Write the structure tokens for this entry.
Amino acid sequence: MLRSIFSGITGLRAHQQMMDVVGNNIANVNTAGYKAQNAVFETVISQAVKSPAAPVAAGVAVENQGGQNGLQIGLGVALGGVSTNFNQGSAQLTGVSTDFMIQGDGFFVANNGTENLFTRAGAFTTDAEGQLVTPDGSIIQGWMADATGTIDTNGVIGDITLPVSTYLAPVVSDALTVSGNIPSTLAVAGTVTSAITVYDAIGVTATATATITKTGANAYEMSINGGAGVAVAFDAATGALTTASPITVTGGDTPAGNIANGQAYVVDITGLTEYASPSSFAVTNQDGQGVGALSTFTTTADGQLIGVYSNGVKQAIGQLAIANFNNPNALEKVGDTTYRNTVNSGVALIGEAMADGRGSIQGGTLEMSNVDLAGEFTNLIVAQRGFAANSRTLTATDEMLQELMNIKR
């Protein structure tokens, strides 16, 4: 009879632990990146009261006898484990550029100064040095781009830092693009012009003025800022360009900036025509850029952070690293919605998003808790009823023992 008391005690303990799990889920119903847990029960050891017996055939000493099942009485229940539900949580659009969400499998990698930890909560901010950090100050890991915006995802991961206090270096203008129509009715020695802003090595602006001068039938010269002209010709029958593109034009005097006289420009002229129409000649593009400060950034699905600079340039800053595990249920929870890998989770398989089973990244969005309140309230009732039923087992056993004690009276 004492077995029922011990079984009832294990039932009380197990359902109390179930209540602890349910209570923790409800407490984290609004925690970004939280994954709901579920208590898993299992039976404990059973006591053998009678051993099983095999069938015995008829013989000299015994009669034919069938087999008999053994008899075991269980000794209660135990909490076998607490499983984690890694199903996707709902998305909450925040509009904050440093908020990120993983759609699919994977974890962000955060270094706390001692080790790499892993999290699904993408509510990050920047610190005084521009580092992308979690609320507890751990630095988000990934790959930084070089000066040209190239990212090597085969390299070692490191701290992600947004270049908030640095500038994008200027680029000297040395290539132009021109297009449009040159009127076939233009008189010999007549001109059409167009200008565009260009940049020197330190970002000072100057003006490059391209001039088309007619030198004969279907023949022209292009010059820049009064420099030497370069021949450009068209087909008399079709008005199409016959000069190979691009051409190299040496500029003359530069009215401003540090662009040296004699600056050579590679000019793409493929868009030029000579029709009997008004002039639409224009310098449409140049390859230089001024100094740029980081204004904001956007995020691509594979985790690249694309900086948007004040000079209009968009260039990769870095890329977030995403970790995956063979057995994420074995990860150890270490607080702050972070996990640590264990011997049973396997090593962190770190790589870029959208590769090798890792999910995609959404910027300006947070993954909310995947706790199902309706299910948790149901589990509350189940845990409460289970606890009450096991307490009844103790009460009923106590009353039976009391009756046994009263037999002597």
Remarks:
- The radius of gyration is 39 Å.
- The chain is about 15% helix and 35% strand.
- The chain has a mean pLDDT of 92.
- Residues 373-406 form the longest helix (34 residues).
